Hints:
The protein is mainly β. It has one helix and eight strands; from the N terminus they run αββββββββ. It has an eight-stranded antiparallel barrel. The chain is elongated, with a radius of gyration of 19 Å. The mean pLDDT is 87.
Amino acid sequence: xxxxxxxxxxxxxxxLFSGRAHAQRYLPGMKGVELRGGFANGSxxxxxxxxxxxxxxxxxxxNRWVIGAEYLMKNYGYRDASVxxxxxxxxxxxxxxxxSDPTKTVFLSVGGSALxxxxxxxWGERILYDGSRLLAKDxxxxxxxxxxxxEAYVTDRIVLLxxxxxxxxxGSSLDLFTTQFGLGVKFIIH
Length: 190
């Protein structure tokens, strides 16, 4: 983890102090493709994680629309084993840029998203290894998310992301709230 943090800080420092003009950022009509991932509600044994893919479109007021998909895996302890819960969700949201540095290298945004998807507990298997029966069922889930995201431009086309996100999903028989901490990379394609 220290190695990745060092690489992130180095990349941000190089982008901040490179001395170039940065005129090609957050322009209306720009589009970006991002890959993201991280931890859900901390990292416990076994690991709780998420990964996702999204497409961003920038607006004339330097904000952006986001459409994406996400996979979340969360494990719950039961005696000497763990019971997995997987969520597959689609996202549609809007992010407001509220802070940036003068060189247009680092941006801070807050966003709201609508989420909908499917949740499976123990991959649909209701009977556990010791014969006990799960009361939690597979279900369709819906809700939203609030995200605080930091974007740091390494170049005009490569962006490093760091995000904190709180998801609220109804329909689940387990958790209503899920906190996520993650990193990502965005490629500006247009």
